Each structure stands twice: as structure tokens, then as C-alpha cells.
Amino acid sequence: MIFNIQRYSTHDGPGIRTIVFIKGCSLSCRWCQNPESRARTRDLLYDARLCLEGCELCQQAAPSVIRRALNGLMIDRQRLTDDHLNALTHCCPGQALSVCGEAQNAEEIMATVLRDKPFYDRSGGGITLSGGEPFMDPALSFALLEASRQQGIHTAVETCLHVPWRYIEPSLPLVDLFLADLKHVESAPFRQWTNGSAKRVMDNLLSLAEAGKKMIIRVPLIPGFNADKASIKAITRFAADRLQVNEIHFLPYHTLGINKYHLLGETYAAPDKPLDAPELLAFAQEYARERGLTATLRG
User: Fold this and answer.
1) What separation in angstroms does the CA of 59 have from each of 69, 73, 115, 124, 265?
2) Is 168 helix (H, G, I), strand (E, B) or coil?
3) pLDDT tens digits for the chain (299 residues)?
4) Which residues pair with 18 in a beta bridge?
5) Contact at 8 Å (CB) between 161 and 205?
6) Bridge partners, 217 (sequence order)
7) Which of 12, 25, 33, 41 has the fewest beta carbons under 10 Å from its own?
8) CB neighbours of 147 closer than 8 A, spacing ≥ 6?
């Protein structure tokens, strides 16, 4: 299941690219900017600002899970079913309600990807699988990578690598570039902030390095989690010494995804202000360069 296809991207691999966003992730990062990507099933988003006063179409479509209150709609999300989501998909004239997630097979997705093949050919671009975590759906990821390879399209995968290695391994020959997250190298803070295993991620990174795959390491810098010199040093040393990669990207924390949590009826548990630490960012770049890495700041 996918939740978006973004064409003409220039930030997720070389050249002009099409990004295919696949739903599902095994982590629950507090700062996740795409919370609608985490569930493998469809989500219902509700924006009260767009709700039309007096409109009852959604209540008529799904009366057992939606009712109107003084400040908007009350949605019983625990009881939402596929039938409810089907009924709500196109019922809201103001777009206050929207369903995130669409079942498409590889052939349907590739029909969109191939529209821009001339741009890939001229710019050295291609397809990037993102998410969520693309390898949470290993069959779809493999099919898209295989179809792209058959068309001579450069392939990249944005991944947190928090999946069993058997989900990744079949796709190895089909991936030209891994854009791989390395959030932390210490188990306790990683589990506290993501509900995941740092060891699983690092083991998979080492397996990619052993397989000789090209990787760019990406480090989201989160206040209170890893936006400190000790964490940056440890992450950079692992990337340079153990993985022997050439390039690392530091991604300063921002809060652009906060509103999505409100739309999903969820609480945002990360800091409410962006990272404002120019000296720390300068340190991260300089330390990475000292370790022989090309270091880049990405917004």
C-alpha cells in the first residue's frame, strides 16, 4: 500500500526522481514527520478548519463512528473499518476528511514512474522508494526495483533498516543507492525514542557494507535524543570506521509535521521547537570531515 507518489524530486538521490511512499514502519519515532506512514493500513485524517457547518454527509456515510459535536466531529477511530473508510473516501466536499493510503500494484505504480523516464535519462535520476519503511512491504519493493532495473532506471531506497535482513536481501542486486538512517548507536535512547532496536539497524548496516552496497548515511539531529557532540561523534565514527562510507547527511530537526498528528487524533511527543544550534551543526560537519567523510546539511 502506498500513500503518495511525488514526481520531480531533487532531494532524495541523484538527478530528477520520482518518490514512491510505501505505508508501514516498525519504528515509532517521536519526531516522525510522516505519522500517516506508520500504519500498514489506511488512515483517516480530519482537519476541523475545513469542516463545513451544517454538513452531515460523513455522518450519513458512517453513522456508527462519526457524530457532530460543538467543536467539530467526534470520530471513534478504534472502530473504523475498511467499509467505513471506503464510504468516507470521497464524501467530504470541504476535504476536511481524507483517507490516506491506496492499494496499488507494481504495474500501476510503474505507469506513473515511467512518465518521467526522459527526465531520469537526462539528469541521472530515477526512482526512490520511501515511506514509512519500504522494506516493510518487501514484495512490492522488490517488484518496483526489479521493474525499474528492467527499464534502465536508477534505483534508491530511503530506509531506517529496522526490518529482518531477509526482507532486504532479495532486493540487494536491484538497489543502486541506499539512503540509510543512523539515528543512534546506543540501545537505551534508541529504544526510548523509537520503540526499536539499535542493534538491528546497525547489524543491517554492517551487512549492507559487507555486500559492497553504496550508502549515504543520514542522521536526523533531534534535541534531547542525539543532538549533542558525544552522540554525533559516536554515530560518525561508526559510519566512517565500521561502515566505511564516503558521505553523511545531517538533518536538523524541524516541526513541520506537528499538524499531521492533530489530523490523526494523536499526541506529538517530540520537542515543539526546531533545532537551533548552528555551532553544533558546524561541529558535526567538521568532525565528519576529519573522519574522511563528505558532510552535508539537509533541511
Assistant:
1) 11, 9, 39, 49, 18
2) helix
3) 999 999 999 989 999 999 999 999 999 999 999 999 999 999 999 999 999 988 999 999 999 999 988 778 999 999 999 999 999 999 999 999 999 999 999 999 999 999 999 999 999 999 999 999 999 999 999 999 999 999 999 999 999 999 999 999 999 999 999 999 999 999 999 999 999 999 999 999 999 999 999 999 999 999 999 999 999 999 999 999 999 999 999 999 999 999 999 999 999 999 999 999 999 999 999 999 999 999 999 87
4) 127
5) yes
6) 180, 248
7) 41
8) 106, 107, 110
Tell me the residue type at 221: L
Map grid coordinates 513541520 to a residue.
256
Q: Which amino acid is at 206?
A: L
Q: Nearest CA to 127 among 20, 22, 24, 11? A: 20
User: Residue 102 in contact with residue 109, Cβ under 8 Å?
Assistant: no
Half-sphere exposure of 209 (CA within 13 A, CB side): 18
C-alpha grid cell, residue 245:
562510507
Count how many residues are written for the chain: 299
Return the pLDDT at 112. 98
Q: Give the position of cell 539499535.
A: 198
Ramachandran angles phi, psi of 240, nearest 5°: -80, -45
Q: What span, in angstroms and rounded, lies between the C-alpha atoms of 176 and 251?
A: 22
Which residues have a Cβ under 8 Å from the Cβ of 67 and sit 6 or more positions away? Answer: 59, 73, 74
- Give the pairing type, strands 2-9 and 97-100: unpaired
The secondary structure element, H or E, covering residue 128 is strand 126-130
- Nearby residues of 278 by Cβ (< 8 Å), 6 or more positions away: none
